[in-house]
Specification:
The chain is about 30% helix and about 35% strand. The chain contains four helices and nine strands, in the order βαβαβββββαββα. GO terms for molecular function: RNA binding.
């Protein structure tokens, strides 16, 4: 038996989330998927940009994650690319999240999907929305880092 740890392989990232939100806490959740969705994820047919998490009757659901069916999908299955997917977490974690989401300005955002030990996992974050001036400062910081990297690259030539 091998004790080597398998590094999680990314399926999809929500890059827009870091621009729009401050992340306070991150969580890992399992996802309930259908067979055709797993096959489509293996092929990278997923978009997570508009993904967010809602709480309905004490359960978490991922909304806005679009998984496009493969052309070779079975004829007896009716794939729905935008259906809401149930997220799996421990009850005490869900209860704690419910309490925090009810606070003003907090929401749950899907950050990424990845493979872990042969299963699809979702990284979600408890997030607070950024104001417009915060978004501008994020852009300014990113551009500043790029300029520093360019200067270092020029210097080492």
């Amino acid at each position: 038996m091998s004790t080597k740890k398998e590094t999680p392989r990314r399926i999809a990232d929500n890059k827009k989330a870091a621009y729009n939100y401050f992340f306070e806490e991150r969580y890992e959740a399992g996802i309930v998927l259908e067979g055709w969705e797993v096959k489509a994820l293996r092929e990278g047919k997923v978009q997570l940009t508009d993904g967010y998490v809602v709480i309905r009757s004490g359960e978490l659901f991922l909304i806005g994650c679009q998984i496009n069916p493969l052309l070779t999908a079975s004829t007896h299955v009716r794939p729905d690319s935008v259906r809401s997917k149930k997220l799996l977490m421990k009850k005490d974690e869900i209860r704690r999240l419910i309490g925090k989401v009810e606070q003003k300005g907090h929401t749950l955002v899907a950050l990424q999907l990845y493979w872990k030990e042969g299963k699809v996992k979702a990284e979600i974050a408890l997030a607070k929305g950024k104001a417009e001036h915060d978004k501008r400062s994020t852009i300014k910081d990113r551009e500043g880092k790029r300029e520093v990297e360019r200067a270092m690259k020029e210097r080492h030539r």
